[in-house]
Amino acid sequence: MLELLKKKEKVVGLKQTKKAIEQDRLESVIIADDADKRLTEPIKQLCKEKNIMVHTTESMKQLGKAAGIEVSAAVVGILKSN
Questions:
Q1: Which residues contact 15 (CB under 8 A, 6 or more apart)?
Q2: What is the pLDDT of residues 61-75, one digit of tens each?
Q3: DSSP for 10-39?
């Protein structure tokens, strides 16, 4: 799943991902297992309501690196193809 991040357009971070979910712009979401559950659970719930597939990855550091950013990331959303 992480390989997809290099090829697909994405949004990184809780706020941007939540906004994109609410706008029905995402095909899937990747959440880091070591992220704070108080922050990621609302995102998971929103994905469930909108029927967006949720994937997990081991660490925030790994997710940030795969997303092409210099810092850790709790959540990354993969945008729908146009």
A1: none
A2: 999 999 999 999 999
A3: EEESHHHHHHHHHTT-EEEEEEETTS-HHH
Q: Which domain holds residue 37?
A: 4-79
CA distance 75 to 16: 9
**Count of structural domains within the chain:** 1
Q: Identify the burial level of 21 via C-beta atoms within 10 angstroms of its C-beta, where 0-12 means exposed, 13-18 middle and 19 or more buried.
A: buried
Burial of 81: CB neighbours in 10 Å, binned 0-12, 13-18, 19+: exposed
Q: pTM of the predicted model, to two decimals?
A: 0.94
Please, are residues 54 and 47 in contact by the beta-carbon 8 Å criterion?
yes
pLDDT above 80: residue 1:
no
- Tokens representing residue 56 in the block: 């997990």
Residue 28: give its domain's CATH number: 3.30.1330.30
Neighbouring residues of 45: CB distance < 8 A, sequence distance ≥ 6: none
